[in-house]
Amino acid sequence: PERGKELHPTRPVHFAQRVQAAPLRPVVMLLLFISSALALAAPQFPALTGRVVDEAGILSAQAESELVAQLAAHEQSTSNQIVVVTLKSLRGYEISDYGVQLGRHWGIGQKGKNNGALLIVAPTERKGRIEVGYGLEGILTDAVSRDIIERAIKPPFRQQNYEQGIRAGVGAMLAALSGESPAQPPPVSAVGGGNFDYLYFLF
């Protein structure tokens, strides 16, 4: 009888628990691998140090100071948050993808209003973009953004005068958001065109 007890143990649950837990290990490892891969795939963003983030170093101290003052005054009067960012590199990403993720990462715009916009310039890749939050899409429409890009930003950029182009672009964006009619630089026909999303531009 004593041997029967040894052949039929009263507590076999430990083995059952190990059998059930074993399949969870590959699942946990897979989840850790996926989270690590996603972290590695995310772009590296510059720090949001203010209303102007000149990572590429293309703005003079005076221009940056004046742009910051303009953007701060606009935010105070409207609550719209506009940020200018120049990049050393897009880190191998398309500027459209990078811009969307950058806006989310920085959290531009008032909570519940989504009233932010970015003017992104990547001079090394000769690309730029106006990234607009949902709350401002009714004002900074594709047509308005196209006009700002073609008339204000691209002509100076093509002469590698990035500071002038950024100043003109910001001025035109703020004028549009304030309901004003911006000053009219040369007409679009004299500037040139191209088939592209007019929130994203080459220069």
What do these coordinates show?
There is one protein chain. The chain has 203 residues and is of the alpha/beta class. 49% of the residues lie in helices and 12% in strands. The protein is built from eight helices and five strands, in the order H-H-H-E-H-E-H-E-E-H-H-H-E. The protein has a five-stranded mixed sheet, with helices on both faces. A hairpin with a 4-residue loop joins strand 3 (116-122) and strand 4. Helix 4 packs parallel to helix 7 (162-177) and helix 6 (142-158) packs antiparallel against helix 7. Residues 2-22, 35-40 and 185-198 have low confidence and may be disordered.
Brief overview, please?
The chain is of the alpha/beta class and 203 residues long. The chain is built from eight helices and five strands. Helix content is 49%, strand content 12%.
List key phrases describing it:
alpha/beta; 8 helices; globular
Give the SSE layout:
Blueprint: H1 2-7, H2 13-21, H3 24-41, E1 52-54, H4 61-78, E2 81-86, H5 95-106, E3 116-122, E4 127-132, H6 142-158, H7 162-177, H8 188-191, E5 200-202
Helix pairs in contact: 4-7, 6-7
Total strands: 5
Cα-atom Rg, whole angstroms? 27 Å
Main beta-sheet annotation:
5 strands, mixed
Structural class: alpha/beta
* Principal-axis shape: globular
Unreliable spans are: 2-22, 35-40, 185-198
Count of DSSP-assigned helices: 8
Q: Give me the side-by-side strand order of the main sheet.
A: 1-2-3-4-5
- Relative helix content: 40-55%
Q: Provide mean pLDDT, rounded.
A: 80
N-to-C SSE string, H for helix and E for strand = HHHEHEHEEHHHE
